[in-house]
Specification:
This is Proofreading thioesterase EntH. The protein is α+β, with helices and mostly antiparallel strands. The protein has helices at about 5, 15-25, 30-35, 65-80; strands at about 35-40, 45-50, 85-100, 110-120, 120-130, 135-149.
Length: about 150
C-alpha cells in the first residue's frame, strides 16, 4: 500500500509528514529497519534508528545499506516537506560517503536531511547521519525528480 496516498493526497507534503508523526506511521522499509521520523519542518527532517546486530554485514559492522536507507529517507522526506498537494518525487541519484563504521555499541543515530535547492522539476538535498554526540558516520547528497501524482 502507498502510505502517503493512504494518509491523503489532498494534503501538502509537510501535512503528510506531520500526520505520519502524529500517528506513528512508517512505510514498510521503515518498519523493517525500525527507522522513526522524529522531526518534520519546512525543508528539513530528522529520522532516528538504533543499529544492532540484525543489521550486520559479514565483517561484523552495520551494513552500509542501512546508512544509505536512512540518508535516502532524510533526503526524500526533506523534499516531501516542500511538496504541495498532488505533487510527488522520485530519487534520481543518491551519493553516499561512509565516514565511520557503526556497530550495536554506536547507539541511536539520527539522519538529518535538508533542501539545498528546489526547482520546479528537480530538487537537490543533503543529509548527515550522526550519533548523539554529533559524530559523523555517513553523509549523502541526492537529486530528486519532482512530478505530478
Amino acid at each position: 500500500m502507498n502510505l502517503l496516498h493512504h494518509i491523503g493526497p489532498h494534503l501538502s507534503g509537510l501535512e503528510q509528514l506531520q500526520a505520519m508523526l502524529a500517528q506513528n506511521l512508517r512505510p514498510g522499509i521503515g518498519e523493517t529497519l525500525d527507522i522513526h521520523l522524529i522531526e518534520a519542518e519546512d525543508g528539513r527532517v530528522v529520522l532516528e534508528a538504533v543499529p544492532d546486530v540484525h543489521l550486520y554485514n559479514p565483517l561484523g559492522t552495520v551494513h552500509g545499506g542501512f546508512s544509505a536507507t536512512m540518508l535516502d529517507f532524510a533526503c526524500g522526506y526533506a523534499v516531501l516537506s516542500k511538496m504541495p498537494p498532488q505533487q510527488t518525487f522520485s530519487t534520481i541519484e543518491l551519493k553516499v560517503a561512509y565516514h565511520k563504521a557503526m556497530t550495536k555499541e554506536t547507539g541511536p543515530v539520527r539522519a538529518e536531511g535538508k533542501i539545498v535547492s528546489l526547482g520546479r522539476r528537480v530538487a537537490f538535498t543533503e543529509a548527515r547521519l550522526i550519533d548523539r554526540a554529533g559524530k559523523l558516520y555517513a553523509s549523502a547528497t541526492s537529486s530528486l525528480l519532482i512530478m505530478a501524482v
